[in-house]
Amino acid sequence: MFWNELANGHYYLVALDRSGDGERVVGYAGLAFAPPDEAWVQNVGVRKDAQRRGVGRRLLEALLGEARRLGARQVLLEVAVDNAAAQKLYAQYGFEAVGIRRGYYQPSNTDALVMMREHED
């Protein structure tokens, strides 16, 4: 699925930690633009040992900047209903719950909360 998203021109970012002896991937995020004015956050993932350090926040801000650059008036995403920390982060950026996708995450059969943010000029 990830390679398919890249092949279809979806926008992806990688967060690197360059401290220490080298660099390591600590997070990634993706955005799909659906013309004329809608974008979907494909994912925001941060390594467990890098969480609570602002990596997800910076990735989300970059995705929202790209969505704005592309002319998206709505940005949507899905987040696990039991991921309160991510829901709180998204709410801080103006996302509101607009629906539920039952059994969205597999194999756990966890529901997804659909959240949306509208951009005004």
UniProtKB/TrEMBL annotation:
EC code(s) of this entry: 2.3.1.266
Reaction catalysis annotation: N-terminal L-alanyl-[ribosomal protein bS18] + acetyl-CoA = N-terminal N(alpha)-acetyl-L-alanyl-[ribosomal protein bS18] + CoA + H(+)
Subcellular location: Cytoplasm
Keywords: Acyltransferase, Cytoplasm, Transferase
Xref: CDD domains: NAT_SF
Domain N-acetyltransferase: residue ranges: 1-120
Protein task: Acetylates the N-terminal alanine of ribosomal protein bS18.
Protein name: [Ribosomal protein bS18]-alanine N-acetyltransferase
Organism listed in the record: Dactylosporangium salmoneum
Upper classification of the organism: Bacteria, Bacillati, Actinomycetota, Actinomycetes, Micromonosporales
